[in-house]
Design brief:
- The complex is a heterodimer of chains A (about 210) and B (about 775).
- Chain A is of the alpha+beta class and about 210 residues long.
- Chain A has one domain: Beta-grasp domain (Ubiquitin-like (UB roll)), CATH 3.10.20.
- Chain A is about 40% helix and about 10% strand.
- In chain A, helix 5 packs across helix 7.
- The longest helix of chain A is centred in the N-terminal third of the chain and has 19 residues.
- Chain B has three domains: about 160 residues, 2-Layer Sandwich (Aldehyde Oxidoreductase, domain 4); about 190 residues, Aldehyde Oxidoreductase, domain 4, CATH 3.30.365; about 325 residues, Aldehyde Oxidoreductase, domain 4, CATH 3.30.365.10.
- In chain B, strand 23 and strand 24 form a beta hairpin.
- Classes of the chains: A alpha+beta (about 210), B alpha+beta (about 775).
- The interface between A and B is large, with 61 and 64 residues.
């Protein structure tokens, strides 16, 4: 396992380590906001030099699956919370809310990220892709098709996250090796243990995407 | 199991009787749909994100619940101050033990009734208060702002010392909850007959279920009618527990659970959180969503208890087992919860042995109560028994597979009167499994490999098992409805917990009705609209529901034949159901298409009702299995890499090869967790608190830890006596022998008998250096 970890360290976006570095920036924003003066009324989240108290609502502009949304959010709200409970797109799942399981994996500018450790305010105007965004209308996308055909799930709760991890991998590596697939899926837990079928699905999805 | 046995998934659940079905159809010799690798009927919903799990429910005006739990393993609540929390933004309701809503509400741990909020919290995580607020963040903030004055008491969390005179008393009285004894034959005589006697003590850790979807629910009242969407393995268990707690008629409580994100036994019934969610919704007159945090799922919704097992066994040189003695202890937690439930079952029943004695001590400690966890007791017992069998084989210089083959039981020796099994596939699992695994050649290859001067050592190991249940049984009722265009609605109360229940049942209905599974609509797991079912657990959903579905389909066909007899004006006994037509046996040109039946067209639909028939009398239906493992140990770092695994499983007829194999792989992965990574760690000396309360500190097998190759070998024996489909349970046997097979492979690789699970790299290094020092 340690060897795989080393190989994976250079593969930005797939490791917990890389992820924690990324989220460190967001944590700093919140930290600063806690010692600031109260500020009333909604403001735009990305205005320069705005330091906000934690409970103030800010206007956040999100681009999700190509659609634009404007929501009022507390600066501390995770992207996951806004996706699921505010916007109502519940395909992205909450498993741990602390960056351990990957059930909430979405793509941000094509890279897999944990939506539970991403603040909504950090991803203004970034390209956010969720499992719903992989559909072609009512038709399943190639990764989703491969998951269905390979029985790559049991309860299905981790599945949207697994699908997004594989989608992210395939956007970076067109024909991943078996090791690359295992590494690409290693940030996503599946308690039912459907890993072997998930690997098979990833492999088939790579072929489906090319055809 | 026979239907008379008491089994955990029915615990505390009033179970109605269903009538016997009037027909007993012939055993399928050939099938067209059943057994085929059909992708799941709900695959689209699960991979597209459109499947709505309880945690996904969003209702108009919905608010969020959160719980405040005791941070101490043993403490009395002296006072609660909610004044600061009440003033916080968005807070809509707070309920504590002093609130009128909660005062008369009771909760049950097995037979022990307790108040919803106990003034004496016996474990870290016991409920102290509940809050509802506009957002999840506000609810959590408010719960944290409640001030509780605790009187902190001494605790006992180490079950191996909880019976010491100096140990704190969990329930005020002694910590020994129960001691069960079993015996047959003459143990002394058995040991006297043995050529080799070995004795060893084995330990398994406390394992936590941690399903991907946390426990939780959404509750909504329409005046006095309550609807609960619970992440659950059985909606009828949710309905009856909530109705009992809130003193409501069953008709006022509707429980729904179409999708759920894993349970593994921990969601067989609801929790105090469910009751509190309902009470918060009542108090605020708004729908409330209460999903537990990940940390809460570690504290208070069950576990597989740790176990300490002393086993002493005697064997003759020819491989005959002459005596088995087994003493085990394990903790229920802070309330009665079956701390040693079924741990000794494999010792009692897996191998032919005339002289057996077991004892099991269930112990109280200040920790969250256990809940059934996938094959309760069995993986623990296998860890001890299957390693002991290997050790005996080595002592008498016999192949471990051969020693097991020598002691195959044909009857259930542990049951009254030793009734025979309908089928014992254990022999075939071992023989054909060993053949496919290339067992004998692999031993030679590995001996060659390990003889070289290399820090990477290899080993192979085997483990076998049976599962006490897996037979299913009454009650179950299923309704199949035929629409006038020939499409079908299948209506059953059972939950699909991820095993593929819906898919398999659609295949059974399609097989019997001669329709394509794609025309079958499934309505399930809703107490208002579907029939009674016991929770999905015990590997009994397929053998319970599949025969019932088949009976419903047959009842529907009989109704259609009666209609055809009227249309064709012939005797109904002379009509046969062939494909989508009903044909007269006198002249096969006299026939009618189902969709042309005049009564069907006039009524618009026809229904068939199926009941689950009884299990065979005086026979036992149990699944059997053998698993084989090859692994590599890095003797410098202690790391273990599992190279391949084979699961050979006798679960009767395979109803869907895709979902069958998926269960096998998933069970092996979970068994790898028990053997190598999972271990609930309580701070025994300082605080009594849980040290590893998240997936970072409590490690599940990840994509990088699972065996590099897994294969599944179904041992399909015709079992027409078991039920009318010949299918036995699978979900639990798949995880029983896994950890033991790993341990046996570790022994071959290192020469060390790892008696304590999980075997971490640190444990490997520790034991190897001990061995080196002699």
């Amino acid at each position: 396992m340690s060897k795989d970890d080393q190989d994976n360290r250079h593969c930005e976006g797939y490791t917990r380590r890389g992820f924690i570095q990324f989220i460190g920036v967001g944590a700093g924003v919140v930290g600063a906001s806690l010692i600031s003066q109260p500020f009333n009324g909604p403001v735009l989240a990305n205005e320069d030099d705005q330091v906000l108290p934690a409970a103030s609502m800010v206007k956040v502009r999100l681009k999700i699956n190509g659609n634009r949304y404007e929501v009022l959010a507390e600066p501390r709200w995770s992207l996951l919370y806004v996706l699921r409970e505010i916007i109502g797109q519940t395909g992205t799942k909450l498993g741990c809310d602390r960056g351990e399981c990957g059930a909430c994996t979405v793509l941000i500018d094509d890279l897999p990220r944990y939506a539970c450790l991403t603040l909504a305010v950090e991803v203004e105007n970034r390209e956010i892709t969720t499992v719903e965004g992989l559909m072609n209308g009512e038709e399943l996308g190639p990764v989703q098709t491969a998951f269905a055909e390979n029985d790559a799930f049991q309860c299905g709760y981790c599945t949207p996250g697994q699908v997004m991890a594989v989608e992210g991998l395939l956007r970076k590596v067109e024909s991943p090796s078996a090791d690359e697939i295992r590494s690409g899926c290693s940030g996503n837990l599946c308690r039912c243990g459907a890993y072997q079928n998930i690997f098979a699905a990833a492999d088939q999805a790579a072929r489906l995407k090319k055809s | 199991m026979t239907t008379k046995d008491k089994i955990y998934y029915r615990e505390g659940l009033p179970v109605p009787e269903t009538p016997d079905p009037e027909n007993s159809p012939e055993f399928w010799r050939q099938t067209d749909v059943v057994g085929k690798p059909l992708p799941r009927v709900d695959a689209y919903e699960r991979v597209s994100g459109t499947a709505v799990y309880p945690s996904d429910i969003l209702l108009p005006n919905m608010i969020y619940g959160a719980m405040l739990r005791s941070p101490h393993p043993n403490a009395k609540v002296k006072g609660i101050d909610t004044s600061a929390a009440e003033k916080m933004d968005g807070v809509r309701a707070i309920i504590t033990g002093q609130s009128a809503e909660a005062k008369n509400v009771k909760w049950k741990y097995r037979d022990q009734q307790v108040p919803l909020f106990a003034s004496h919290c016996r474990f870290e995580g016991e409920a102290v208060a509940a809050v509802a607020a506009d957002t999840r963040y506000q609810a959590a903030d408010a719960a944290r702002a409640i001030k509780v004055d605790y009187e902190i008491l001494d605790f006992a969390v180490d079950y191996e010392h909880a019976l010491d005179a100096s140990a704190a008393k969990v329930g005020g009285k002694g910590n020994l909850l129960n001691e069960e004894r079993y015996g047959r034959g003459d143990l002394d005589k058995g040991f006297a007959e043995a050529d080799v006697v070995l004795e060893e003590t084995y330990r398994t850790p406390c394992e936590l279920h941690t399903p991907m979807e946390p426990h939780g629910c959404v509750a909504n009242w329409e005046r006095d009618r309550l609807t609960v969407w619970e992440s659950s393995q059985g909606v009828y268990a949710v309905q009856s527990r909530i109705a009992e707690a809130l003193d409501l008629p069953l008709s006022k409580v509707r429980a729904v659970g179409h999708y759920m994100g894993g349970g593994f036994g921990s969601k067989l019934w609801p929790g105090k959180y469910t009751v509190l969610c309902c009470l918060l919704a009542k108090k605020t007159a708004r729908p409330v969503k209460m999903m537990l945090s990940r940390e809460e799922t570690y504290l208070c919704v069950g576990n597989r208890p740790a176990s300490t097992m002393r086993i002493k066994a005697g064997v003759k040189k020819d491989g005959t087992l002459t005596a088995l003695e087994f003493d085990c202890s394990g903790p229920s937690g802070a309330y009665p919860a079956g701390g040693v439930q079924l741990v000794d079952w494999l010792v009692r029943d897996l191998y032919r042995c005339a002289n057996v004695r077991t004892s099991s001590k269930d112990i109280l400690i200040n920790a969250g109560p256990a809940r059934p966890f996938r094959a309760p007791g069995h993986p623990q017992g296998a860890w001890a028994l299957e390693q002991m069998v290997d050790a005996l084989a080595e002592k008498i210089d016999m192949d471990p597979v051969a020693l097991r083959l020598k002691n195959i039981p044909l009857e259930s020796q542990a049951r009254e009167g030793a009734p025979p099994y309908t089928t014992t596939g254990l022999r075939q699992c071992l023989e054909r499994g060993a053949e496919q695994f290339d067992w004998r050649e692999s031993i030679k290859r590995i001996n060659g490999h390990n003889g070289r001067d290399n820090h990477l050592k290899r080993g192979i190991g085997v483990g076998a098992c049976l599962w006490i249940a897996g037979d299913g049984g009454p009650p179950s009722t299923v309704i199949i409805k035929l629409y006038k265009d020939g499409s079908v609605n299948l209506n059953m109360g059972a939950s699909d917990i991820g095993t593929g229940t819906k898919t398999v049942m659609a295949q059974v209905a399609a097989e019997e009705l001669g329709v394509h599974p794609s025309v079958i609509q499934i309505e399930h797991a809703d107490t208002a609209t579907t029939q009674f079912a016991t929770p999905s657990g015990g590997s009994k959903t397929v053998p319970t529901e599949a025969p019932t579905v088949r009976n419903a389909a047959i009842s529907l066909k009989q109704a259609l034949i009666t209609m055809a007899a009227e249309d064709l004006k012939v005797d109904r006994d002379e009509l046969n159901y062939i494909g989508d037509e009903i044909v007269w046996s006198g002249d096969d040109s006299k026939k009618i298409r189902i969709t042309e039946l005049s009564t069907l067209q006039k009524r618009g639909e026809v229904i068939g009702v199926g009941y689950r028939g009884p299990n065979p009398e005086d026979k036992v239906v149990n699944p059997f299995a053998a698993q084989f493992c090859e692994l590599e140990v890095n003797t410098l770092s202690g790391e273990i890499r599992i190279l391949r695994f084979l699961g050979a499983h006798d679960s009767g007829r395979v109803l869907n090869r895709l979902t069958f194999d998926n269960q096998v792989y998933g069970g092996i992965v979970m068994g790898v967790g028990l053997g190598l990574t999972e271990n609930r760690q309580l701070d025994e000396n300082q605080t009594g608190k849980l040290c590893n309360r998240n997936w970072h500190d409590y490690k599940l097998p990840t994509a990088l830890d699972v065996p590099l190759v897994m294969s599944s070998l179904p041992i399909e024996l015709d079992d027409p006596e078991s039920n009318n489909t010949g299918a036995k349970g699978l979900g639990e046997p798949v995880t029983i022998p896994t950890a033991a097979a790993i341990a046996n492979a570790l022994y071959m690789a290192t020469g060390v008998r790892f008696t304590r699970a999980p075997v971490t790299p640190m444990a490997v290094i520790r034991e190897l250096s001990k061995k080196e020092k002699g």
